Amino acid sequence: MQARRALRRHWILTCGALATTAAGCSGPPAPDAVIEISNVQFSPMDATVPVGGTVEWQFDDGGLLHHVESPGAFDSGISGAGTYTHTFDHAGTFVYTCSIHPYMTGTVTVR
Ligand SMILES: [Cu+2]
């Protein structure tokens, strides 16, 4: 009985360690879409994600300031580096722009 109990304890500890590894411990899950901001444009301009999906914008334009803004829906703030992530909880089409460069536009379709 003693040996069996020890075996069971070993199994729980091993699986716990595996579950921790599988769940990541290495940061949040990957986004459903990645949009690069470079050369004063959003690339790709149009992205589609499922309801509950996340989009990550990467500010990668040599430090040039940009802004991901869809009034009433999401707002990255003005930034020249790093990333901005938004989770879309509702279906719809979201048009966004950069307030600094109004000709920069993009669309996220959530369905
Ligand atoms: Cu911009």
Written overview of the protein:
The chain contains 1 helix and 9 strands; from the N terminus they run αβββββββββ. It is α/β, with parallel strands linked by helices and 111 residues long. The protein has one domain: Sandwich (Immunoglobulin-like). The strands form 3 sheets. It has a 4-stranded mixed beta sheet with strand order 2-1-4-7, with no helix packed on it. A 3-stranded mixed beta sheet has the order 3-9-8, with no helix packed on it. β1 (33-38) and β2 form a beta hairpin. It is globular and about 30 Å long. It starts with a helix and ends with a strand. The chain binds copper (II) ion. Residues 66, 98, 100-101, 104 line the site of copper (II) ion.
